[in-house]
Amino acid sequence: MNLNSIHSGAVFPVVIKTLHNLEDELAAELDQLGAHNIHKHQRAVNCTCDIHGLYRFNYGLRTALRILIPLYEFEFRNADDFYRKAKKLPWNDWLDNASTFAIDTNVKSEIFRHSHFAALRLKDAIADFFKDATGQRPDVDRDRPDFRLHLFVQEGKAAILLDSSGESLNRRGYRGTGAKAPLNEVLAAGMILKSGWNGSNDLCIPFCGSGTLLIEAVSIAKKTSPHTSKRTFAFQQWPGFQNKIWEEVVNQFQSNENITCAINGSDIHPKAVSSAAENLRNAGCINDVSLEQKDFFKLTPEKAETVLILNPPYGERMEEDDAVKLYGEIGTQLKHHWEGCTAWIIGSDPDAMKNIGLKASKKIELMNGPLVCRYMKFELFRGKRHEQKS
Known about the structure:
Layout: H1 3-7, E1 12-17, H2 23-32, E2 36-41, E3 44-49, H3 51-60, E4 66-75, H4 79-87, E5 100-108, H5 115-134, E6 139-140, E7 147-154, E8 157-163, H6 185-195, E9 203-205, H7 212-222, H8 243-252, E10 263-267, H9 270-282, E11 290-293, E12 307-310, H10 320-337, E13 341-347, H11 350-354, E14 362-368, E15 371-380
Parallel strand pairs: 5-6, 5-7, 9-10, 9-12, 10-11, 12-13
Antiparallel strand pairs: 1-3, 1-4, 2-3, 4-8, 7-8, 13-15, 14-15
């Protein structure tokens, strides 16, 4: 397989990276977008596609971080053996001596004690391959390379993959100045998808911060791409880029659908509301959302069966004692004022989460950056729980 065969319509494997515990949502998205041979792994899903699929997956997936094309795998005994085997690979199937490239590494090996050394040896192998063949070495460009390679080393086994995405796919293109501790866009989309909300009933997002959950919700409801027109992808810079296919893919995600439910966002902090409004404008969906500066404890649902998704302050955003108190107050507010609704709450403080005082019907472990979080579902029944129909 080479770059020309990919552009000529060949089917090829891809590895799609995601966040912890979003594999099910990513696999479901891939199925909807026409992927084949879908297999879930830890923080990744493998499948096969053609060039249409590669463009479509990059532009349309909400829970993907990167889409990688496996190039080469080999075993090696030591660093010199790694270099020799890497240098023998047919790098001119993908690059030429005028290409710039960069290498990201993930190394778990006694042979390479430092990931930078593994990247350096691969860089030398590629550069020396072209120097021997053409007399010229391609340049490394860490910031905006023509080709970004990912090197994964597990003891004496190496895998090299080509990044088709460029910047991580959570960078949608709508982020402005941002509020404090903004939520990862892929995590936000995953939270909404895990809640089961799809635009059929009202959605309320208090503590909206910089508006990430609101923007991802609008995109889900309207079935549009999560990316703005500002976003570019690595494959657009490759020789042989199929612009006609790309335009077809972009058009497939255009939507004239009107949102029939209410999407309401609020935050008590004026800077957060201002940041959310800026990002909503950047995403082109300011008119699809009701946004206001308001205290959560003064909110009440406009309709029964409203879905709430709450991302209250936690971790570095709040002292532990304050978090425990806040979550207790949130539980009381939900119990007395949001009957008949469903609430999902994410937090990283177990003691604070316990203080909600309601029985969770579902608990899911998620990662928000380095923080291990629990994402919990609370069904806010009217009357007593045991009186509800099963």
